[in-house]
Amino acid sequence: MLIRFNVYGTIMAVQRKNEEWLLFKESETSMRVRIYDVAIPAELPAEVLAQYLADIFHEHACERYSEVEQYKG
């Protein structure tokens, strides 16, 4: 399972692998770079990932990008 989010203007992907969540930053060419310094609790349901990312990265919020949303692009 891979879910992509627009995290205050940065496209990130969260992948479920081996009973844990992995976080990646995506480039404009869809290359993914693993983010190791953010741990997402394994028991967190997919439905609350956007809120969790919003809480973790809230300092990146700005007038143009004020929310974390699932990325549809």
UniProtKB/TrEMBL annotation:
InterPro entries: DUF7661. It comes from the Bacteria. Residues 3-71 form the DUF7661 domain. This is DUF7661 domain-containing protein. It comes from Photobacterium swingsii.
